Amino acid sequence: MVKLISVWGKGGVGKSTIASSISLLYNRKGFNTLLLSTDPTPASTRILCKKEVKTPTECDGVKIIELSEEDILSLWKKRFGDEVYNVISSFLPVDYSIIDYVSRAPGISDEFTLYYLYELFKSNEYDVIVWDTTGAGGSLNLLKIEKELYEHMGDAAKLYLKVRSTLEKLRKAQYEPLELINSWRELAKNIFDILSSNDHDLILVSEPTSLSFFVTKKILEDLNLHNIYTRLIIINKVFNEKICSNCNFIDELVKESKDSLNLFDSIKDIEKIIIPYIDNPEKRIENIIDIINEKNQKIF
Q: Which 3-state string (H, E, C) describes 237-254?
């Protein structure tokens, strides 16, 4: 059984570092692990490979794929270009160049990201897939678009049935698109089924500030609307007196961390892990792995 772990959070909270740490932890436990990054500014290879390299690649035993928007659009054309052309050309007298135009439509790359993830999950090639998502707004947009696709495909099928006889009189269709429209709707449903299943653990990364707390609350509310529930909240970069006992400037950061942790305590029924601020980048990954492994054996 494949385990999908998605790592969410607003930009700058250390989401990619946490995703990389979790990937490395699973790999060390003997699981064939893939780290998939759809962040527009990916950092996975810089974190695990110590340099920026072209993906797919493997570092420290973890397979890594970083997808840019151009990568996603190219993959979309290969997978759905013919199908979309067959549907459009059954309505309108267009040539195949229409696909280049359609591929740039808002939401296409977002939609295909979830499809790509779904195909990786179904392939059973990996034991664990860790998905380093885009910043919170972009990730929530993925879910919104997927939901809209599911709803609109139902409407599209009804519309096609209503106008089919008229269209056939105007132009003899060479391809019956109704089956494809229904298959796309079923695909959208299958993707949501995985994201809301027990095979998916959603981890929300935040930091100890009041802004991050309120962003976290909003993300949780939006996820719940899609019946996707958060398994774990990781509060990263928490300041304490041990970081620098004789530094006056640290006092304000420590107080902000404590006040923010009190706010996070108001979020019930979701396990939380606190990661202290780690100023040594060479030790950061290993320290995070140790903390997560110690605190969360139930998941990891």
A: EECCHHHCCCCCHHHHHH
